[in-house]
Q: What sequence folds into this?
């Protein structure tokens, strides 16, 4: 069974047992349990491909029914704020800080419902399955959100209206709207106007076909579609731009025999074009030997030292069978 299917089943079960998972909650208390090493069997190891593991934690909330399901995140430019979405139609905002030992943790956590154009919470799973979030460059507080099942992209002004923001529909190709119900636009990035593609939105469908993921260039200078070589049979799950303007893609895989796996690739924007086939650069792979889970969310920022920092989080599907992990890495070349 693929992890996406297992996650959907667990989420549906959680919503039946714990309807509070959809309710708005404020000031959720989080306890961060440090991960002593990313590789428990080799605790001195810190470098994994082109990533250096900095620190990580398991985030344990005071109320498991209200915290979890995190499917995509954006990290603020200073690396201290987090804005994300959950796959049950929720927002999450928080501050990221470090404990004295360097363990990352969240504080000031708030979760609330994503609203529709009538100002009402998204009621059904078919409408509420938010999978990607991306900041709109040059427009602080504005975010685009991709949804699967009822495949679409909506834009919200959280800066102006907070969690009470209502959506603006972003026109998308019919091919994106027609993607399979649970295999829609999973990874999302919005490019700055000065990029080679202009102010385009890049959306990547979750499931590979014949070894390739499908990407969509929406708006910008040259709209179209392109293909990305997938890592083995991994699904796309999130994307973010690094400080050099490259697209970093997070992929994941699961089977009962192997447990969870994760891969990270780097794609040059110059390689993306209508009808292009892209062979991305592999940055890192991991499997059950490392401290990973259902890794779904990726955020990137540049720290005060000029380092490129990747923040990766997992989706616990509101169950005790999975963990919410917060991992931080430095990207090196």
A:
């Amino acid at each position: 069974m693929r992890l996406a299917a297992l996650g959907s089943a667990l989420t549906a079960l959680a919503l039946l047992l714990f309807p509070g998972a959809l309710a708005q909650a404020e000031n959720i208390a989080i306890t961060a349990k440090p991960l002593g090493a990313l590789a428990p069997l080799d605790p001195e190891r810190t470098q994994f491909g082109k990533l250096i593991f900095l620190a990580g934690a398991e985030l344990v909330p005071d109320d498991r029914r209200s915290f979890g399901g995190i499917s995509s995140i954006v990290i603020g430019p200073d690396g201290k704020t987090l804005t994300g979405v959950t796959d049950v139609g929720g927002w999450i905002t928080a501050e990221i800080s470090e404990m004295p030992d360097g363990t990352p943790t969240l504080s000031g956590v708030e979760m609330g419902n994503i609203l529709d154009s009538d100002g009402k919470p998204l009621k059904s799973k078919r409408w509420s399955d938010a999978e990607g979030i991306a900041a709109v460059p040059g427009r602080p507080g504005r975010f685009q959100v991709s949804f699967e099942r009822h495949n679409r992209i909506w834009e919200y002004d959280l800066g102006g209206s907070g969690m009470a923001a209502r959506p603006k529909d972003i026109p998308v190709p019919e091919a994106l709207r027609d993607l399979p119900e649970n295999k829609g636009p999973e990874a999302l990035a919005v490019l700055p106007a000065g990029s080679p593609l202009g102010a385009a939105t890049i959306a990547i469908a979750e499931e590979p076909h014949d070894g390739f993921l499908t990407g969509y260039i929406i708006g910008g200078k040259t709209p179209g579609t392109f293909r990305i070589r997938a890592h083995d049979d991994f699904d796309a799950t999130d994307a973010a731009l690094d400080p050099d303007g490259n697209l970093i893609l997070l992929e994941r895989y699961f089977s009962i025999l192997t447990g969870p796996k994760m891969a990270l690739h780097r794609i040059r924007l110059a390689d993306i074009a209508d009808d292009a086939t892209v062979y991305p650069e592999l940055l890192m792979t991991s499997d059950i030997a490392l401290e990973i889970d259902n890794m779904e969310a990726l955020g990137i920022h540049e720290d005060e030292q000029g380092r490129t920092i990747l923040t990766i989080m997992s989706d616990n599907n509101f169950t005790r069978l999975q963990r919410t992990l917060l991992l931080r890495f430095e990207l090196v070349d």
Observations:
- The chain has one domain: 3-331.
- The longest helix spans residues 3-17.
- The CA atoms of residues 243 and 306 lie 9 Å apart.
- The longest strand covers residues 51-61.
